[in-house]
Amino acid sequence: MTSAKNSCSVCEEELTPQTEAFCNNCGQPYHLNHRQDAPGKDCGQVWINEEHLSLEFACDRCLHPDQYEGGLDDVLDLAEAAAATGVSEASLAAAADGGELPHRKTGSGVYLFQRRDLPAQQGRR
Ligand SMILES: [Zn+2]
Ligand SMILES: [Zn+2]
């Protein structure tokens, strides 16, 4: 094992063991101030999962993917896009075919969308 320095996946600055945490979602390291009494930088959050009484970590890229374009693989297929927006697959496909929704279509006819291009979720939030 080498002691390669980790850098934060959010701000790309160097991490130290005192400021390092790993996102449960993407597995990347990010800044988390472990001490309440010292100033520090937070590039993500930690909270207690009340069901499992375990600590959950998430970096800002995963918490706010719309603010960090390009860093994450935010490509969704039709079913995922429908789940993310609350819009039916048929109307998403129609909007894509009609040129209203930016998308990519694979050779086998699968629609791919980028999360930031999708309409905001209906109702919830
Ligand atoms: Zn950082
Ligand atoms: Zn993450």
Labels describing this entry:
125 residues; alpha+beta; 2 domains; three-stranded antiparallel sheet; two-stranded antiparallel ribbon; 3 helices; 22% strand; binds zinc ion
Walk me through what this model shows.
With 125 residues, the chain is an alpha+beta fold. The chain folds into two domains: 20-66, no CATH class; 75-117. It is built from three helices and seven strands; from the N terminus they run E-E-E-E-H-E-H-H-E-E. The chain has helices spanning 60-63, 78-85, 89-97; strands spanning 20-22, 29-31, 44-49, 54-59, 75-77, 104-105, 111-114. The longest helix is centred in the last third of the chain and has 9 residues, at 89-97. The model has no long low-confidence stretch (mean pLDDT 86). Bound molecules: zinc ion (ZN) (2 copies). The site of one zinc ion has 8 residues, from strand 2.
Lateral strand order in the biggest sheet: 5-7-6
Output the radius of gyration.
19 Å
Enumerate the distinct ligands.
Answer: zinc ion
Q: What is the global morphology?
A: elongated
Would you identify the regions where 5 or more consecutive residues have pLDDT less than 50?
A: none
Derived from helix and strand composition plus strand pairing, the structural class reads: alpha+beta
Please estimate the helix content.
Answer: 10-25%
Largest beta-sheet characterization: 3 strands, antiparallel
What does the average pLDDT come to?
A: 86
